[in-house]
Write a structure and sequence with these properties.
This protein is of the alpha/beta class. It is built from 15 helices and five strands.
């Protein structure tokens, strides 16, 4: 008789219990898929049951995890485990103390105060824990994009990754989809120009592209980006807002104390570290007088697009040219 297979260790993807902590749906889906694919790689007939809190009643877990005649492998996924009833939580806690053979339990838990007793019990029982928290910081979204390209086996420049985050925003699912699309459609290294061709039509990305080119002193490119933004329906007020943010960031960094550590500087300026690095590169040609001139130009453009002028497009073009010249004032 062959020796009985050992249980996978707690950190293994096929551990008896995995708890997915957080509310980022993309990460939860990926973590569930990872467990299911690993289980089916070992046993193609693995049965997968996914249950919402209302479907897991007292006694249901015992029924799902009871030994079968054929000792089939089973993955039981419980969504929103923080919403389970008190009686069902008792069942789950009892199960965690003595998990069944060939059963893999996956608990998706929001991670807050609600249902914390179940989460604590899972941790105490040695469950494998997967972080699925919402990605809210720009730097973390940038790291996510870089990791996506690496996982897809492709190289993308730092500027391309940042441009993609600027264009797509905070939705991880859309960011992942964009990385996959670029990887499928583009050969070689993915750079900023490629991202621009695919995604520059988005309002937020277009306005910040205008601002970035202007504060970098790239007049022709800034004007081209501005005309494209306006042609694709970007509201002029979004452009003036982006220009204001760009120029103010230059001024804030220029007046910051010298010699501060990057993390301390980021906190002092209220910017994420990646933003500090970008602004530091953009401010090379700026002088204090240039910042003053640019801020006045932004204020005039803002007044014009909010009703103080007859031609918002002309006002924006004038501001962009003035800011780009100010960027070379040193």
């Amino acid at each position: 008789m062959p020796p009985k297979a050992k249980k996978p260790p707690a950190e293994h993807v096929l551990a008896p219990c995995s708890v997915l902590v957080g509310q980022e749906e993309l990460l939860i889906e990926r973590a569930v898929r990872e467990v299911v694919e690993a289980a089916r790689a070992e046993d193609a007939d693995t049965d997968v049951r996914e249950l919402a809190p209302g479907e897991l009643q007292p006694g249901t877990l015992a029924e799902l995890t009871s030994p079968s005649l054929f000792a089939e492998r089973k993955v039981v996924v419980v969504r929103q485990a923080q919403d389970l009833s008190a009686d069902t939580v008792k069942d789950v806690k009892a199960y965690l103390s003595a998990p069944a053979e060939e059963i893999i339990l996956v608990l998706a838990h929001a991670g807050g105060a609600k249902g914390k007793g179940l989460l604590d019990a899972a941790r105490k029982a040695g469950a494998r824990e997967v972080a699925c928290a919402k990605v809210t910081k720009p730097g973390d979204r940038l790291a996510f994009v870089r990791a996506e390209f690496r996982a897809l086996g492709r190289s993308a420049t730092p500027e391309a990754c940042q441009s993609l985050v600027d264009a797509i925003g905070s939705d991880l699912r859309e960011l992942a989809s964009a990385c996959a699309q670029l990887t499928a459609d583009v050969d070689g290294t993915i750079d900023e120009s490629v991202v621009g061709r695919y995604y520059t039509g988005r309002a937020e990305a277009s306005s910040f592209t205008v601002a970035d080119r202007a504060v970098e002193g790239r007049t022709a490119e800034a004007l081209e980006a501005l005309r494209w933004a306006l042609a694709t329906g970007v509201a002029p007020v979004l452009v003036t807002s982006a220009l204001a943010q760009g120029v103010r960031a230059i001024g804030k960094l220029a007046s910051a104390p010298r010699g501060m550590r990057p993390a301390d500087l980021a906190r002092e300026l209220g910017m994420p570290p990646w933003k500090v690095d970008r602004v530091r590169q953009q401010m090379r040609g700026w002088s204090a007088d240039g910042v003053s001139v640019a801020l006045r130009a932004v204020a005039e453009a803002d007044a014009a697009v909010k009703g103080g002028g007859y031609d918002p497009a002309y006002a924006l073009e004038k501001a962009v040219v003035t800011i780009a010249r100010a960027a070379r004032s040193r």
